[in-house]
Structures
1.
Amino acid sequence: MLIQRAALPVAILLLTAGYLSVYSRKLTVGAAMTGVLCGMLIFLGIGYAGLAFLAVFFLLGTLATAWGRKTKVQLDKPGDTVQRKPGQVLANAGTATLLSFLAIVFPEYKEILLVMAAGSFASATADTLSSELGVLFGRSFYNCLSWRKEKKGLDGVISLEGTLIGIAGAGVIALIYWLFTGSSGYLLILVFTGFAGNFSDSVMGAGLERRNFLSNDGVNFLSTLFAAGITLLLISVF
């Protein structure tokens, strides 16, 4: 009932945030509309915690993308911009949105779906921070499949520094989960899930994206889906 009463204020908040994101050229109009829809479904499904995951991911991702932009321009693929498109929104928030929709349909599983959504956002945050900041602060870069040194910025190339930054990002999402639920039992699981999802992104980047079997958005979506699945497996075991 509380969620339903707050739906209108939250919708206004999301629309305002969407407008400001378009105005500041952080999102395209289509991406903003997609983000508002995802945000509403996430809120209606898993509540304020889910909305906080989305907001923190967007804020950290935006800052990380803008940081050192001049240096990264020479490494980015054509078409990669600070202004996000609808596909990029769905790639990162799509899994959490699907889980939130399931929570609306099957409210008795809300707690489990909330943890899984947190895991997906931990992965998305870890991936975004490690890729955007790893190229700036990393010293040595390796192909995650062959472990041979390669040029930074290539798909599937990782660094120790970038990996640690990604783990820190996953930790932020884990802390938000703790703050909203009061449960610390899944903190380490969510941090590990973020790391695992991020690493799976790198593996798919090196093995599939380089061969044009998957797009970057496809890799990002599948890695968050993988992270959600790993979260479910771990909370079932532990």
2.
Amino acid sequence: MESSPLISAGLPIALFIIMIGIGMTLNIRDFRQVAVYPKGIIVGTVAQIVLMPLVAFALASLLAVPPAIAVGLVIIAACPGGTTSNLFVLLARGNIALSIVLTVSASLITILTLPLIANVALQFYMGTEQNIVLPVWKTIGMLTGIVLLPVAIGMLVRARKPDVARKAESIVSVFGGVVLALLIVALVYGVRDQIWELLKQAGPATILLNAAGIIIGLLAGRAAGLTQRESLAVAVELGVKNGTIALMVTLTLLESSAMSIPAAVYGVLMFPIGFMLAMYGRRIIAKTTPGIVK
């Protein structure tokens, strides 16, 4: 399934709305808290931006996946946490404030890092003879428009009309899940004749990438001296990716269905794995822990 006008126009609009929802969960105090206690944001951001793409490169090489699948795997690994990660952190009784700030900070850093990492993957796996180059400035412009601006709008809405923001948060989260689900259904339908072969090619790598992200988050957090709640937040942020951005890059910029398969497969698998992580968190974090939202 190649890029269609519906995807080219509808996907950025949908992501814009979703990112406004993230902005509605933030205020200036969240950033001030991170500045005072920055360890969690440093660990989470480094793991998200540096370690996850490196893991994707390693998995693609070890599993010898096809070049297009390898590029797609690196792209989904380089994406920030998804808009539903905050909900999973809430369910897991993790540190919600840290999750929110990690989502936004990684999204902002992604504006610069995603084009660079994607270009490295394209050159490494596809070769120069295919002349496939990610338009860096176009990508930066698109990510700025669908990440930075809507987050700022969401924060402004929360500051001016907090009641409206609280009511809209859950609606936007549901909308984001529906958008991703519809995209996945459309992708699967578009490659229905090759779906089982593609799942065989991308499935093991995406499962391992997801599991690696969660394990890295838990272990790195504990090694850095973070609390269980903070470590859970980092793990969820590494495991629950913003698949919509990966699909936008692979479909609207690179116009490759094959490259979009890892993002589609990841988008399906991360939800049941995320629920299992939430159940784990509820087992180890007591309801009486300070800061828990009942």
